Amino acid sequence: MSATILIAEDHPASLELMRYLLAAHGYRPLIAVDGEAALELARREHPDLIICDLQMPTVDGYGIVTQVRADPRLRHTPLIAVTAFSMQGDREHVLRSGFDGYFSKPIEPETFVRQMESFLPPALRTRRGPGA
Amino acid sequence: MPAPWMAAIPDALVMIDAAGVVRDWSLGAERMYGYAHDEAVGVPLGELIVPAQRLDEQRRLIAQTLQRGAGIFETLRRCKDGSMIHVDISSTVVPSDAADAMRLVLSEKDVTGLKVLRDARSLDARYRELLESTPDGIVMVAETGHILIANSQAERLFGYGPDELLARPVEMLLPERLRGAHRGHRSRYFSLPRTRAMGVGLELFGLRKDGSEFPVEISLSPLRTEELPVVMSAIRDVSERKRFEQALQDKNVELENANRAKDRFLASMSHELRTPLNAVIGFTGTLLMKLPGELNAEQARQLEIVRSNARQLLALINDLLHLARIEAGKVELQLQPTDCAALVAEVVATLRPQAEARQLDLSVRIPRPSLMFRTDARAFSQIVLNLTSNAIKFTERGSVCLQLSETEADGRRQLALSVTDSGPGICQQDMAALFEPFMQGQASRRNREDGTGLGLHLSRKLAELLGGSLTCHSVFGSGSVFTLRLTEA
């Protein structure tokens, strides 16, 4: 069974882009447009990976990382920040606050899925190519 | 019990023994010096009313009186409230009941008013002209604290008319709250006079005749004229400067706030520009990856144009933000021993595919595989990357060569990195504005869509940030050499 990946993102086009790419590569995307919804979904569905924007309504990315890391059933879920904040020092700050990875927008569609997969255990990676 | 008329004598009558200890103290002495009879009797005169700098004089007075039976002296006395007065003294030895000791009677008359006026006249004759010629307000003050002379600049400063300050206590030029402390400072100053420069010490304030205060700076210098010690004080109104300092400080705070607002603006702008670009580049990519379905050749060609222009826009945003950070002094350099040869090799490896795609010969000359030099790796790499990708971009055929070399000047190590191309070269009229933003030359107009127009400008800014220089030598029609020179701190 392919991995379930939760995407928390409030910008509709960015959300759709990531959702589309992951689905096209055979993953099961879950979507949330704000932090609270993302946490609720995560607690219910136990995704294999969480991709998370930083600036979001209700609970921002930093709030999500704090709550996920404090939840015994979620704390080992890989958490990736995908953000349009790319000033000097942003990467270090993000990684220090508990994220497993940091990618800045715009994402590269050709490599995005492969980058996300690298945070999944090999058994959960799809062996299918896109659209297959 | 003295007769009533004796109590009316204004002079101070003081009886002391040969050791200088007070034995009797008249009503006149009580009034003149402020010490009551019981406070004074039994206390050595030296501790009571003799200023420190007059103790020797006091000992001579006693010795001479004992020797000659009587004497006449002029000296300075310190009253209980700290004020100083000039006195004329007649002294006499009187018989004593006590067989063991001599007694001296001192009759002391306050002549301060007379003496101040006399000294004032003498100083006026000597210094008036000199004092009027200086820009600062100047007052000369006697040991008693009386103003002996004030130049007209000082009178104007404090709002007084000509000679209105003459013979007045100098404390009247100070706000009430500072007067007590000032009297103490003044008497200590006379016992240990030394020059004190302007602006040393505390914030001082002057008091104008109309009661208003103003900040002053005061310099003090002792001036010993014949037998007359005075202190010369130069006074400067610093209201203007204080206002200026305050304004500067306000301006600084304002600038800091503006800077913070600018930082926030830059961060937000970066975020807001990237977000829509994410969708543009992303979905162009998914189409080109043919995820939704096959494309015909023309669709693919046009989508490539969209993608390349979107990336161009992204590069421009990145360069602009980088430039803004440099201009704002926000780029933090980490100067440390850096293997510059390795960095050059890295850049060349990154750009080799581009060079090969254009069938250019990309070569590197490095004196040795590892060349350590103290600099910021990120900035150095960025400059090398900009110069090399420019060279590849603008060279139609031939070669691009990177050369790293080491020299020494004035005992300091220098590093030079040159990027030589066999491109079109830069014509004279483009040369002048080569490093200006958005000033791509004639030759580059054809390749416009490849560059942001900020690369060289940014590179030079970075070179300067590293304490180095970036220069260009070019022969129109046969190629260019860009050279980065760094000097080790």
Outline the structure in words:
- The complex is a heterodimer of chains A (132) and B (489).
- In chain A, 38% of the residues lie in helices and 17% in strands.
- With 132 residues, chain A is of the alpha/beta class.
- Chain A has one domain (4-120): 3-Layer(aba) Sandwich (Rossmann fold), CATH 3.40.50.2300.
- A five-stranded parallel beta sheet of chain A has the order 2-1-3-4-5, sandwiched between helices.
- In chain A, strand 1, helix 1 (12-24) and strand 2 (28-32) form a beta-alpha-beta unit.
- In chain A, helix 2 (35-45) packs parallel to helix 3.
- Chain A is globular, with a radius of gyration of 14 Å.
- Chain B is α+β, with helices and mostly antiparallel strands and 489 residues long.
- Chain B has a five-stranded antiparallel beta sheet, sandwiched between helices. In chain B, strands 7-6-10-9-8 form a five-stranded antiparallel beta sheet.
- In chain B, helix 12 packs antiparallel against helix 14 (455-465).
- The interface between A and B is medium-sized, with 24 and 27 residues.
> How many E-type strands of chain A?
5
Shape of chain A: globular
Outline the biggest β-sheet of chain A: 5 strands, parallel
Name of the CATH class of chain A: Alpha Beta
Category from helices, strands and their pairing of chain B: alpha+beta
Helix share, percent of chain B: 40-55%
What is the N-to-C order of secondary-structure elements of chain A (H for helix, E for strand)?
A: EHEHEHEHEH
Largest interface, Cβ cutoff 8 Å: A-B, 24 and 27 residues
The appropriate CATH architecture of the largest domain in chain B is 2-Layer Sandwich
How far apart are the first and last residues' alpha carbons of chain B, in Å? 91 Å
- pLDDT < 50 stretches of chain B: none
Question: What is the number of domains of chain A?
Answer: 1
How confident is the prediction overall: mean pLDDT of chain A? 91
